[in-house]
């Protein structure tokens, strides 16, 4: 079937980008009557509690930022400090800096909610965002020029997956409810259609790309996972899950290692070199609820999963059968909300996820805010919460840029850019 012709690219007149005020009050200042809870450490069951609404930095014993890092580097050079110790010091310094993070740019370019985002791999101030109507915005917020806006088809065109092409960063891959997985350029031209269902009953829900092996993998709404090479040749098409495949992820260090998540309440691990059928998975990780996402850590050693109710899980790559680290966290699924997905920080062992307060959640407190929560990936402890009173909606997607110093968030129709206040005030 010939690919549907895409509408022309245009510069959007609707994008309203505005700098934020220099200082936003913290949740502590906004809700002094809210109950303060203590962060609980890991127990014997490896289960953690995220019930600390005001998990500030006071209890972290954060080292003084400059002198401690210089000292740690010096000790590492002399052989007196191991690399993990140095890395922990750097992570603590980063956590200390979160106190100065503010929203400094905001955009609302779409007539339907945003559904996906991706950072450009080499330009730290450029990202792409897709919407439920199939619109795509390419935004370099470091420049005064208006973002590039690619108009979608409207209803039924939801962008479900978005990745820049690692072999040509002026291009990007998309999967959509329009029924295609395709490669496009910044002008909106379709360069190659990798999959096309040809019917409104089947669509594609996720994708990932490997530059090393030149592969594209995509999952659909009935449980199929399709592997193709960059030339568009299909390598296999198998039904790996009983229901919709919500997320596919290739391991960043071993790209033959694939994780697939599904609403059938499982996450499965596959060796692409040994896939022979739906039963050829290496491991099947059962969950209590449908799963929104399964993401490998930047070093490939851990797998983070987000269910559709109240649990984050961290699996160790060396011990798949060992009980995972469980982090209770309210992020329940709602039909008209972009599914909440937790992600990793690109440089530190930290987890970032939006909070959707649930009155039925065990540790729910009065006046609980819709924060962005930061957890330690090793201990499961809440380390910090970001909040802006002028952007108090439910934040579904959060992702740091490759440098790890700027955070992009999706809140309904809005795209929020967070960064250090001090960094934005520099000439």
From TrEMBL:
Pathway: Protein modification; protein ubiquitination
Keywords associated with the record: Acetylation, Chromosome, DNA damage, DNA repair, DNA-binding, Nucleus, Phosphoprotein, Repeat, Ubl conjugation, Ubl conjugation pathway, WD repeat
Principal localisation: nucleus
GO biological process, one term: DNA repair
GO CC annotations, alphabetized: cell junction; Cul4A-RING E3 ubiquitin ligase complex; Cul4B-RING E3 ubiquitin ligase complex; nucleoplasm; nucleus; site of DNA damage
Biased composition (Basic and acidic residues): 1-11
Superkingdom as given in the UniProt entry: Eukaryota
Region described as Disordered: spans on this chain: 1-34
GO molecular function, one term: ubiquitin-protein transferase activity
Gene3D superfamilies: 4.10.640.30, YVTN repeat-like/Quinoprotein amine dehydrogenase
Location in the cell: Chromosome; Nucleus
PANTHER family: DAMAGE-SPECIFIC DNA BINDING PROTEIN 2, DNA DAMAGE-BINDING PROTEIN 2
Similarity field: Belongs to the WD repeat DDB2/WDR76 family.
Protein name: DNA damage-binding protein 2
Species for this entry: Canis lupus familiaris
Lineage, highest ranks first: Eukaryota, Metazoa, Chordata, Craniata, Vertebrata
